[in-house]
Amino acid sequence: MTPADLFAAYADTLDEGPLEIWPTFFTATATYRIVARENFSRGLPLALMLCESRAMMDDRVRAIQELSMYAPRVMRHVVSSVREPEPDRVMATYAVFETPPEGDTRVFSTGRYLGHLALDHGTIRFSELTVIYDTALIPTSLIYPL
Amino acid sequence: MTPADLFAAYADTLDEGPLEIWPTFFTATATYRIVARENFSRGLPLALMLCESRAMMDDRVRAIQELSMYAPRVMRHVVSSVREPEPDRVMATYAVFETPPEGDTRVFSTGRYLGHLALDHGTIRFSELTVIYDTALIPTSLIYPL
Amino acid sequence: MTPADLFAAYADTLDEGPLEIWPTFFTATATYRIVARENFSRGLPLALMLCESRAMMDDRVRAIQELSMYAPRVMRHVVSSVREPEPDRVMATYAVFETPPEGDTRVFSTGRYLGHLALDHGTIRFSELTVIYDTALIPTSLIYPL
After folding, report:
1. Chain mean position to CA A113
2. Residue C47: other Cβ atoms inside 10 A
3. Which of B45, C16, B9, B133 is nearest to A99 (CA)?
4. CB atoms within 10 A of CB B57
5. Does chain A have fewer CB atoms within 10 Å around its N or its C terminus?
6. Minimum distance, in Å, between the CA of residue B96 and any CA atom of chain C
């Protein structure tokens, strides 16, 4: 599986579900975090979402699924410029669009992925994935992984 | 020609024309349809556009070209995550943008392509292509293929 | 380096900086220009930006860096459909998004890249790059390369 195939499958899982599959893209001890570009470039540890193991990701999935008041939106990830600057290190660019139930599609977030890969039980998984989003303001509606 | 090259050429034809070339990406008996995500996931047969042969696609092209009152807009397809989950089966993600003659560029539609490929007279073509768009509402201005 | 890798590195440099690196993607005598789709298809020589050598690109970079009153925005290039229709000729599609300091991300520009490549001191560089943008109106705020 190439890095481009991995990101394609990852994006497809977030857009099409089921969301329970999302943690399986990570090793058991992987770190996943979503950080603002501003905080990332200043080296600040602030994260909009932080999971320090796959078990924490499973918890996050359950929490999202229990939030029944949450309005359903369709998300669509367009991932481009997937590259592997060093072995087991991957980078990619993303634009995520959201479509509310009866509304127009709009840009939800743009930014970058920085990841580390590991061969885990014969499958390539993320041992670390950082999502760096371009907006300075935190989109408070975000409870979904990116 | 890889699936990524095929989608790149397909998208380029829709964006840059000439539109008469569009049906040549399909086999003579191919099915092309545009369906709303909602209807697709419920298995409903409703389609925003349905062509059950290349001849029907040629008719569609002629109908579009005769609609002279139609305001010219520039469309731009960004296709990503092209993959081939099984031999001759292809999937991809798209975001299409539109730019009106004197206005700002905006998101027109996001969604997915699901296709089947066939080797037809030495050329790889779609024997089936389904466009699944994310909006619930039908964009009534849509008369163009996606 | 594949054409896709080249465009990924090019886009990353424009989005993440430093901007001084941008001219190094070109040969010393390369031409870089940004033209409106309308002007391009009519064959008009009008360009929104025109640099006829790498030295002119270096000047442009210095001019941008001295414009301190310029509001910082984050740009994000999503480049897709990279292809090489003939040896040393490349094409790609782009969507560029901008995020103002305290605002929402929006579509800044969509369009195409048409380029010629040359092997220059052992590195693949653009000997020519034309950016064709879809809007008819000139975005007057544009002083950055695309």
Report:
1. 8
2. 17
3. B133
4. 22
5. N
6. 10
Band the pLDDT of C105: cuts 50, 70, 90: very high
Å from B110 to nearest chain C CA? Answer: 13
The residue type found at C94 is Y
| pLDDT band, residue A142 (cuts 50/70/90) | low
Contact A132/A35 with Cβ under 8 angstroms?
Answer: yes
Contact A45, A36 (CB under 8 A): no
Adjacency order of strands within the sheet including A123-133: A49-51, A26-36, A123-133, A106-120, A89-99, A74-86
- Closest partner residue to A80 among C9, C80, C106, by Cβ? C80
pTM: 0.94
Q: Which of A8, A76, A102 sits opposite B110 (nearest CB)?
A: A76
Give the start-end residues of each E strand in chain C: 26-36, 49-51, 74-86, 89-99, 106-120, 123-133
Q: Which of helix, strand or coil describes residue A46?
A: coil
The residue written with tokens 């849509």 in the block is B142
* ipTM field: 0.91
Please give the Cα distance from B117 to B119 (Å, whole number): 7
pLDDT digits 0-9 by tens, A85-99:
999 999 999 999 999
The pair of three-digit structure tokens given for residue A73, joined into one six-digit string:
């939106």
Q: Is C81 at the interface with chain B, CB within 8 A?
A: yes
pLDDT, tens only, B42-76: 999 889 999 999 999 999 999 888 875 555 789 99
Residue B71 at interface with chain A, using a CB cutoff of 8 Å: no
